[in-house]
Specification:
It is built from nine helices and 14 strands. Strand 13 (183-190) and strand 14 (199-204) form a beta hairpin. It has three domains: 4-76, Thrombin, subunit H; 101-224, Beta Barrel (Thrombin, subunit H), CATH 2.40.10; 242-349. The chain is α+β, with helices and mostly antiparallel strands. The protein is 25% helix and 25% strand. The chain has a six-stranded antiparallel barrel with strand order 1-2-3-6-5-4. A six-stranded antiparallel beta sheet has the order 7-10-11-14-13-12. It is elongated.
């Protein structure tokens, strides 16, 4: 819940603002709906844990917006001290065409959760009189519905239609991440009134791969952890898979050259956690202060990673620790499995 965001968009002077939902996919990035950031707009704010002890908020700017995919990626301007670090990037999955339904869940801030608390006596003095609470919905998607639109039809318990015929009670839910089997499979983007109050539409992750251009996909890979290739849902359920054994690097000489480390460097630079801005520095903070202090630096990620590997080899146990920290951040990503395979082959050649 700490990563679920309220997205607050200010309109031009004299025009009302807009609200939506989002999900913090990285330390400085939030995923939300594209139509929510429709110009003209004056401000963009993101808030977390409203009226809770850990509440924090900050301004944001748009780094990616695709109307066709109805997707936006926001970059947070500042991180206050109370902002918790992101322990790992989310998983993403695509759903193959099949008959039947799939259980899903989402958390957002729809209009029907608008609350009046005057006289309730439940909230401390000074809190806002009106607020919009969170809504955790559990439902199902019928996989074969809405194929032409590129969305899922999400069946959810219907709210009371108490907001009038011109507005939807689901306003503000747009941008909420849609989860199934521990992975994001889409974003809530619309409520089609003709579908009834118990149906929402969510753009599919699969659709992102189909309509976004390569630079846009690269932004999502770098800042949101989207895999370079679609990963089918259920292909790697974390709870059912034991982590691969970590190679033991004690046998590796400290004099390995770039040509000898090339395959490992290539595999490491494909990791989303290292492709993020300052990603390598963040990882090294938990590895060995000597490595962080003495490694050579380079603006090119490949050479930067090579310098880290060479420096780790100088200190016993540092490379093992580096891989352990990467495993925490990457969980069980396909890219990390590729790193494990390359590292195991490197160790085998030098044993």
């Amino acid at each position: 819940m700490a990563r679920v965001a309220e997205v607050l968009v200010g309109g031009p002077p004299g025009a009302p603002g807009r609200r939506g939902s989002g999900y913090r996919v990285g330390d400085r990035h939030v995923l939300t709906a594209g139509h929510l950031l429709e110009p003209p707009l004056s401000t963009i704010g993101v808030r977390f844990d409203a009226d809770r002890p850990g509440e924090w908020s900050t301004a944001a700017r748009v780094v990616l917006r695709s109307l066709r995919a109805d997707l936006s990626l926001l970059e947070l301007a500042d991180l206050p001290p109370v902002a918790p670090p992101i322990p790992h990037l989310p998983r993403y999955a695509v759903v193959p065409e099949m008959e039947g339904s799939l259980p899903v869940t989402a958390v957002g801030f729809p209009r029907f959760k608008l609350r009046e608390q005057a006289g309730s006596g439940l909230v401390e003095v000074g809190s806002p009189v009106r607020f919009r609470d969170s809504c955790h919905v559990e439902g199902t998607v019928s996989v074969l519905s809405n194929r032409r639109e590129g969305t899922f039809e999400v069946a959810v318990p219907p709210p009371a239609d108490a907001v009038g015929p011109q507005r939807s009670p689901w306003e503000g839910m747009s941008g909420a991440a849609l989860w199934s089997d521990g992975a994001i499979i889409g974003l809530i983007t619309a409520h089609h009134r003709s579908d009834g109050l118990g149906r929402l539409a969510a753009v599919r992750v699969q659709y992102w791969y189909e309509v976004l251009d390569p630079p846009e996909l690269e932004l999502l890979q770098t800042h949101a952890g989207l895999p370079a290739r679609p990963v089918p849902i259920g292909s790697r359920p974390i709870a059912e898979m034991s982590p691969p054994p970590s190679p033991r690097f004690a046998s590796l000489p400290s004099t390995l050259t770039m040509s000898e480390l090339k395959d490992l460097v290539d595999a490491l630079t494909a990791l989303p956690s290292l492709r993020r801005p300052n990603g390598l520095d963040t990882i090294l903070e938990s590895v060995d202060l000597r490595v962080a202090a003495h490694r050579p630096r380079d603006d090119r990620l490949r050479f930067d990673v090579y310098g880290v590997l060479r420096t780790c080899l100088r200190y016993p146990g540092a490379l093992e620790r580096f891989m352990e920290v990467l495993r925490i951040w990457e969980e069980d990503s396909e890219e990390l499995r590729a790193v494990d395979r390359v590292a195991a082959e490197l160790v085998r050649r030098h044993t």
